[in-house]
Structure formats: C-alpha cells, structure tokens
Amino acid sequence: MIHLENVTKTYRRADGPVHALSEVSLDVAAGEFVVVRGPSGSGKSTLLTIVGGLGRPTSGRVVVAGEDLGEMTASARSRFRAEQVGFVFQTFHLVPYLTVVENVAVAASPQRKRPARMRASELLESFGLGHRMNHRPAELSTGECQRVAIARAMINSPGLILADEPTGNLDPDNATAVLELLGDFHRQGGTVLLVTHQEFASSYAQRSVTLCGGAIEDRTDSLSV
Ligand code: ADP
Hints:
Elements: E1 2-13, E2 16-28, E3 33-37, H1 44-51, E4 59-64, E5 67-68, H2 74-84, E6 85-89, H3 100-105, H4 116-126, H5 142-154, E7 160-164, H6 172-187, E8 191-195, E9 207-212, E10 215-216, E11 221-222
Parallel strand pairs: 3-8, 3-9, 6-7, 7-8
Antiparallel strand pairs: 1-2, 1-4, 4-5, 9-10, 9-11
Helix pairs in contact: 5-6
Bound molecules: adenosine-5'-diphosphate.
C-alpha cells in the first residue's frame, strides 16, 4: 500500500534549512495498522503529509496504492487524495458553519453514484451520531467532533487512513471510541498509519515504527498479539 524509498524532506526557512526527513524508506502492506512514534519534531507529521500527497518530498520515491506520487500532476494528486486517502487530525478541522452531515458530505467525491448526503447520513448513523446530524460542530463534544471527522475521512471508502494524533485532545473513553472506529476500518481490510504518543493506542496496531531526527530507527517493533 505504501512504499517510500529514500525520502528526504527539507524545509527552507529564513533561519536556514530544516531537514524534517532524511532518507526514509518504509513499506506498509495493504491491510496493515502501523503506529508511528517519535519525539516532537522528529518528522511524523511530515511523513503523513508526504504519504497522503499533501506535501512533496525534496527527493525520493513515494508510491501509494500503486500510484507513484512523484509522477502525478497536481490535479491527479488531488483526486488521489480525495479517493484513496482519509485524513484525521488532532484538531478536527470541521467547518463551523456547516451541519454535521454537511461536514461529512462536503468531502464526498462527485464521481460516486449515490448522493453524498445519503452516504454521509448512513456513516454517521453507524457511528452513533444519527441524533447529531443537523447540529453544528460547536454543539458537539470533542469526542463527537472527532467521530464526525472520521466519518468525513471515510466518506469515499478510502483504502488508507492517515491519522495524526487523533486522540490527543480526547479523554480515555472518547479516545477508545475513536480507536475502535479505526480498528473497525482495519478489520474490514483498510490500512492505517497512526501517529500517536499514547501507549494504549499502540494496542490497536500490528507494528510500530519510530522516527528520530527525521530518520527511522532501525528497530521496528511487531505489536501483534
Ligand atoms: P513531528 O510531527 O514529529 O512533530 P514535524 O514533521 O511536524 O514533526 O516537523 C519536523 C521538523 O520540520 C520540525 O523541525 C518542524 O519545525 C519542521 N517543519 C514542519 N513543517 C514545516 C514547515 N511547513 N515549514 C518549515 N519547517 C517545518
């Protein structure tokens, strides 16, 4: 599902270059659930943005879902993002003036035949948010907001979910509910790359990789039970 080969990312800043990723090579098979760990500033978010086609590497090869992202035009890359990848962030990035169902439906790819609103409603029902459909994000708890964000990430039935500290703002019960949704997605064959600092989140993953100073540490832990 994911093939990274010698991926380097250098940000140019006024105070000099920042080497966020250095020669990172990583393979994640379709259907794997992998946790990415590492201290703040070690390149975890940069890795996710590159895998999801949001950012481009300075050098190296990135192949995701059989697509070589380096070979794609900007419009092909944005279609790839919409159809193949679901993003979930620590801060939910919901649109405040849209209702819950609109927040999910707005991310739907126009290519799909079934109406976006119908698919969004079904997803929200299955996430236990049927009663919240017509509320605005400000009326929801943080746990509900993150479940809406996960529904939005899944609206196009992507093969891959990229989650950057999705439970960082949640209490343990809500964090568990969010991880269960990611776990369900994984059990149905989806691939998950989850950045987290939280130890208990790792129990949902089969494998962890650790970034340190923009490089993957040699040791890769298998977490399978
Ligand atoms: P992490 O997610 O592990 O905290 P990041 O990928 O966010 O790490 O950041 C890695 C390094 O790259 C940090 O030094 C950070 O300050 C820098 N960085 C991240 N994004 C940018 C950016 N858009 N412009 C400049 N520097 C950045």
